[in-house]
Amino acid sequence: MLYFALGQRSSGVEQRFRKPLVDSSNLSAGSVILGDGTRMTGLLFGTAGAPRSTWTPSTVGGIERIVELGLGCMEIEFVRGVKMRETAARLVGEVAVRTGVRLSAHAPYYINLNSQDIEKVRASQGRILQAARIAALCHAESVVFHPAFYMGQPPEAVYETVRQHLDEVLSQLERENIRICIRPEVTGKSSQLGTIEELVNLSAGLKGVSPCIDFSHWHARTGKFNSYPEFEAVLLQLRQRLGDEALENMHIHVSGINYGQKGELNHLNLEESDFKYMELLGVLKDYNVKGMLICESPNLEEDALRLQAVYKGL
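^ that's the sequence the OP posted. Answer follows.
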């Protein structure tokens, strides 16, 4: 059983996770209850990690800077490993609730649910689980991750392998009573599992899974999907397969993007790339999309504020 394969935790730690820490069933779609009882709704804009102008380089400092900048959300970056302790995570959660800043988290990059080495698969599952445990203490609503590499295998076979291993992760989270959304991300390289169709299928078939739609990655991967009709087609696909609620609480990544024949090369600032973010924002506005839009441009808050300003001006 996965629980034992990933290591038995002490009963004391296990007990701390008994009570649901984030229960999205108590929130209306696209909203969060603030410390004073009010709700922050609509499409919120924020940064991947603490803004560059954060006075104190920490997650708490990042949340406070998000508030100062007038943004609404932030993604905690565990991409190099989950190094945050439980006590620090609880403090992050308190600050997030007090300020009303909505949080997500990005699991470590070192995940491959299609590895041919079962120990590496278990380690990958463990990284998702640990990210989810700490993210839940932070009052984050979801955990984003890059699922797998094809490794020369047929995409259909890789999908089934990933689905099985991800289902094991979800079962473990259920045993621990951790209610947090698990979001596989649209990936930017053709060598990675992470097409929109694959992620929609995972979300339709596994309870507790929803896609993270990285529109910049999808543009880089396909060399297309960079116009109003193409962005609209993505939203229509989500709505058709996953229902209206899919657009009521989206998790979106946006940045400028540099790409080649095999897909993503690196992120760019929006004004340095060909990504038509204004057309994307128009589609999101027209379809009244709600949730979080996380900016991954190198300049972080500069482009996040640019996106928010353009969106509000539509």
